[in-house]
Amino acid sequence: MSPNLYEQLAERIFCKESARVCELFRMVADEKQAALMLAAPGTAAELAEQVGCSAAEAEANLETLFHRGVIFKSHKPDGMRYRLCRDIAQFHDASILWPEAPREFLELWKLYTQVEWPEYAKMISQILPKPFARVVTVQQPVDARSRILGYEDVEDIVMKATSLAVVNCTCRLVDGKCGKPVEVCLQIGKGAKYTLERGTGREVNQEEAMEIIRRSEEAGLVHVVMNKSDDSHFICNCCEDCCITLGLAAKFGFVLCDPSRFQAVVDKDKCSGCGTCADRCFFAAIGISDEEAGNVSSVAADKCMGCGLCVVTCPEEAISMVEVRKKDFIPS
Ligand code: SF4
Ligand code: SF4
Ligand code: SF4
């Protein structure tokens, strides 16, 4: 039996075997819309011709699908061109922000991320030359600021942004078990333009964006950006429980996110062994060991992601961040 429209869509984003992905597409698009998605890429007129409808009808449906997060647009000299979401990650991130998404749709995404995503993510991690995301150290702790490069300084990224918007964190929107702030995902430059055109977030200025960064740090959220030295379309503020990217290392032992170039180091002479840092670290990188002089904490270098969250709450100011990776660790 030849695959139906939704099975073909799942195949197009490399999820051929997934009944859940087929069902997610079915919830987003009726059969006419699914046919347009399969015909993409192209202009509305080109796609209309392929599926046998008017250009006006095709355009209206494509705009609906853009709003729902499965079709992406680009302005070209020959007019607006439409394309299907590239892969499951783009389908996930964009469609969950569909403002009118029914609760069952979000529940199905939750099931997908719990049951199928870890295996799929493992396969991606084996294919990618470098993880697509990277941790950025929080604002306060790296004292030798001259060694921080622009693209690993959230304030610098925010201040240089041409436009900014904030959207809900898709992982917490679906899962939400951690109870941490949800409206904290910053979109930058073309990411912000896309957000505002779709109506899935609100525009913020640089001051408001920095306030979101501070609020995220207070809540113990880890900053994550695109793993590139020249650009990032987002600053994610991620939690341990819900994040479908950061949690993989601790739970399954593989990574889709690189650490920052920094690592936490404890000054044993200052450390009182209170354990606050160990509670704060969601990569389980800090242990409290018994020493002659009393309990002290120590950091496991292979587990530390360089987020800096442990530094800001240490009552003895016993932790500092040191540079452990060269500049070329970050791909261009
Ligand atoms: S990657 Fe992090 S901030 Fe982004 S949506 Fe997931 S948990 Fe939220
Ligand atoms: S929070 Fe500071 S003082 Fe407390 S155990 Fe950690 S390093 Fe030591
Ligand atoms: S020890 Fe944990 S909390 Fe501290 S910087 Fe490393 S990963 Fe972050």
From TrEMBL:
Pfam families named among the record's database cross-references: Fer4_21
UniProt KW keywords: 4Fe-4S, Iron, Iron-sulfur, Metal-binding
Domain of life: Bacteria
InterPro entries: 4Fe4S_Fe-S-bd, 4Fe4S_Fe_S_CS, Fe-S_Ferredoxin
SUPFAM superfamilies associated with the record: 4Fe-4S ferredoxins (SSF54862)
Sequence ranges assigned to domain 4Fe-4S ferredoxin-type in this UniProt record: 262-291, 295-324
Protein name from the UniProt record: 4Fe-4S ferredoxin
